[in-house]
Design a protein that fits this description.
The chain is of the alpha+beta class and about 400 residues long. Helix content is about 35%, strand content about 15%.
Length: about 400
């Protein structure tokens, strides 16, 4: 047995004894929740001890980053359908010093795309459309031919970025919506980057078009469809799709959810509303770590769509992509160097989001932040791959003293 293994076993044993003697759990605030609790008997379950050690280690990691000013948000880690760790750090309002909670709603940025893809899959299973249908079947005025629903989902359309088009041809003091964006494409017809299905090119335009297809098929606004078909069935009560419908001017503040912040020297400045917040599909979903865990459980159980549909969503959509680069499915990036792992990260106007789903080991890690700056994504990959050494386990013991 190696020295490392001995230290790990010793660390776990000490943690178990300390917990049994103390007879209770020490937590810094009520946001620290663990579903697995250590038995009061002299015989303890090794898995429960492992889960407890992971929870305290994660608390140590994020508490340290919060004190250094590089993590302000909420984080949830789960295994095999159980929440192992769930806690919020920092402020929802820096000026008023109001604290974040695990039910605070954050802008998900590009993590929103998985909900757009799910809306399409729900319509597929209702026989309302097919993956190989043409985009122009549902948006006939769109001036580019040869694009399918599947290519939109997998970012293989070669379409130009809508944000470049709107910045050039729209009054940024006035809200814009999906219909307006489509009309700008009709009017100006910017040149494509590539021919359809020629290569992978991540582009937000694809997902606003998918949201628009959902609207045209369902005869409902995209935010309403998502609420009725995803959020309500899963009791995701603190989740919604933000939009500027009915607004004629840009408000100073985003009128829903937790505000986002950017740093100006030592000060944190609230990010105001923005004209592109009226566009849905590529971003705009607000949710919580606890609601996203409900969504993750629905993916495991097939509660929204069948397991065969989900399997296709997690398949790489670009077989010829460079083997060193991560692939893309339906609203999910596919980790090339990890077995059965899908994820998505996001950034938008004062928010950073991280969602990693390790399906082989039944692990999920969700972190939502409301500041422009953030920690490296390597931290989250180390956590999901359990790159914690024996010294870190012994540090857990010292925290329990």
């Amino acid at each position: 047995m190696t020295k490392r293994s001995i230290l790990i076993i010793f660390g776990l044993a000490v943690i178990g004894v300390v917990i049994l003697i103390s007879g209770n759990e020490k937590t810094e605030n009520n946001n620290f929740k663990m579903t697995n609790k250590v038995s009061d008997s002299l015989y303890y379950n090794v898995q429960e001890i492992c889960n407890t050690s992971k929870a305290y280690r994660l608390d140590s990691i994020f508490n340290r980053y919060n004190k250094r000013g590089i993590f302000n948000g909420a984080v949830l880690y789960g295994e095999r359908g159980n929440i192992i760790f769930n806690k919020a750090y920092g402020f929802s309002n820096f000026r008023k010093k109001e604290l974040l909670t695990t039910t605070s709603s954050f802008q998900l940025a590009s993590v929103s795309k998985m909900f757009t893809a799910m809306a399409i899959m729900i319509l597929i299973e209702k026989d309302k459309l097919s993956y190989d249908d043409s985009l122009t079947k549902y948006i006939p005025e769109f001036p580019y031919s040869g694009i399918t629903i599947r290519q939109l989902l997998q970012h293989r359309t070669g379409l130009p970025r809508y944000m470049s088009l709107t910045d050039k041809h729209w009054d940024i003091n006035k809200p814009i919506n999906n219909k307006d964006v489509i009309q700008l494409f009709v009017e100006y017809k910017p040149e494509r980057y590539y021919r359809p299905d020629e290569c992978f090119h991540y582009c937000n335009t694809n997902y606003i078009l998918l949201a628009s297809i959902v609207e045209r098929i369902s005869k409902k606004f995209f935010d309403v469809f998502v609420k009725e078909n995803i959020f309500d069935p899963l009791s995701m009560d603190n989740s919604f799709v933000y939009n500027l419908r009915g607004d004629t001017a840009i408000s100073y503040r985003v009128q829903a959810g937790t505000p986002g912040y950017r740093s100006r020297g030592w000060r944190m400045i609230e990010v105001g509303d923005y004209y592109l917040n009226g566009v849905m599909g590529d971003k705009g979903v607000y949710s919580t770590v606890e609601d996203l865990f409900k969504f993750n459980q629905a993916l495991d159980s097939g509660a929204l769509v069948s397991t065969s549909s989900l399997k296709e969503a997690f398949n790489p959509g670009s077989p010829q992509l460079n083997s060193q680069k991560d692939n893309y499915g339906f609203g999910w990036r596919i980790k090339t160097k990890m077995d059965s792992t899908a994820y998505h990260f996001g950034w938008w106007k004062g928010f950073r989001t991280y969602y990693i789903r390790d399906m082989k080991n039944e692990r999920v890690l969700i972190a939502l932040t409301n500041t422009h700056n953030g920690i490296s994504s390597k931290v989250f990959w180390d956590i999901i791959q359990e790159n914690l050494d024996s010294d870190e386990l012994l540090e857990v013991y010292h925290q329990l003293e």
